[in-house]
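Z., the sequence and structure:
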Amino acid sequence: MAVKRNGCEGCTDITCASSKQVLAQDIAKGVKTAYDRIKARGMSACLFGSGGTCCRNCNMGPCQIIDGVEEMIGVCGATADTVAARNFARIIASGSAAHTDHAREMVRGFLETAKGHGPHQIKDVKKLMSLAEVFGIATEGREVKDVAIELGEKALAEFGKQDNTPISMLKRAVPKRQAIWNKLGIAPRGIDREIVEMMHRTHMGVDQDYENIMLQGSRCALSDGWGASMLSTELTDIMFGTPVPRRAIVDLGSLKPDQVNICVHGHEPLLAEALCIAAQESDMLEMAKSQGAKGINLVGVCCTGNEILMRRGIPVAAGFVQQEIVLSTGAVEAMIGDVQCIMQSVVEVAKNFHTEIITTNYRAKMAGAKHIQFEEEEALKSAKSILAHAIKNYKKRGKFFIPKEEKLDVVVGFSHETINYMLGGSFRASYRPLNDNIINGRIRGVAAIVGCDNFKLDDDVHEIIARELIKNNILVLATGCAATSLGRAGLLNPAAIKYCGASLREVCEAVGMPPVLHMGSCVDNSRILIAATQMVKQGGLGDDISDLPAIGTAPLWMSEKAVAIGQYFVASGAQVVFQDLPTSGAKKFNKYLLEGLMGPMGAHWNVAKEPLEIARLMIEAIEAKREALGINKKKERVLFDMEMRRDLGGNKAIGDAGCTGATHHA
């Protein structure tokens, strides 16, 4: 049902109960949101742009290309396939650049922490030593600080490498996948180098072969997935702690009527973590009390929200599409942002209230917002300065409305290490039980629902897909705004097993986990790469990611980062499904993405329009992989006797027994 705002219908369906409540209030009467702007446009998106065939890469155009019409190729002669491939590759480059710049800041922050500067510390020493081994760093008999500094320096060097040796983390991939990358010549070198080369090759008059363009597109995307994003995730875990399951809430109702409400928005957790520490300091709490507030209530928005949600249990008040709505409550003293996904419109929304928009990163300023630069070298002092400004707004608060909490309870923090531990415990941590449950059919496969929210489409798409998947006994992994959307739908709670098929429900009950596992922010899709790699290495499900009964979707993609993520999964051997791609105007290139990539990569893109169509495609792809692996035959379930329990290292016995991970380890 479309939400009614002051007597008129909204432009698209809003299923979130809290959002409906807020927009129905008199205090939100003057607020114009993206929903209103879409309705006011009164026009569909440009067909040339949507199809990927508008070229503006030089000043002879812009050229609008019509595939197959000789008079409608580019002035330079560029065909629809060349133009669409260039545009698609530039989307990959931009998305990779966003993750790369984010990751570089995290590496720099890690290096400062390793040197003993700032309020943070090395929290996960075990992961530090494991990652040091990947980089060929000696750890025996060395101080943690020294290992961390060397790791930070080598990690920073990954961005600017100029030789042709692959980036270090590629060696974490399975041998077969590494061999494919080497054969195709797409193993990433320096992370920045791949982005620059992608932009150069899509310049007018350079690369004009769509298959060749996409080879570099894959290399660029891989430099993100197995380079920048993976570095960011791993070093953030080492510095702030690897996530473990914790209960929290995801809803607009996480705002507090008698506390200073501060929304932390963006993507780089250095700012958010410093704010979390500062908000607990006695001087900040005293300042809040002096303004009449009972405390300071930090809430997250977008992927920064996911970061502090999974590490600290701090609520996520809003995803991307709700960032204007959370301000429309009138209960927010300040929205503090760093980089990425912060809409310029929040400044105009804030003008209706006492709320202030505070930018903190020199890369991302907005007219009408107050800029207070976050200085990483003096993180705590800088965070307190930002908080103080927000706290002083509390007395200015006027009428406000905080919606009633609904479906708040979520369980988050499922890193790949956590999944490993949950299945096997400290001494038997292993993906063996997961693999066995897939082999014996109790879990049919694994699906990832990742990416953004999008105003163009109804906001219950993620829920529809997830429910259909878990009903068919498919375990779901989720990241980014998709994850918080599923949290609002009640699917990140163990109680969601009521929506599962019988066998997935039994496994989830035994382990005590939800059927949808929150794995972090958008950079944390690298966790899924590692989890998939570990499943392959565990054995029984083929010798490459391309063999796994697994598939991913970003059904409401909005950001260019989502396309970079999609391409690095395809280049790693994993199928992906989007609702649309900006390539439909170029027949050959579009077919190459949807079919032709299977040859060199062992995976390809898929497009499906409706949520249930997406779910069905994912289920069919998983079943096809099961068939190819020869594991679709039902196996008799044999309970372990004492001798079998003693032989926990015997993979053949475990596989032949076909027991569940729950029986094995519970």
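The chain has 28 helices and 18 strands. The chain has three domains: 75-240, 252-396, 409-665.

Let me know what you think.
H.
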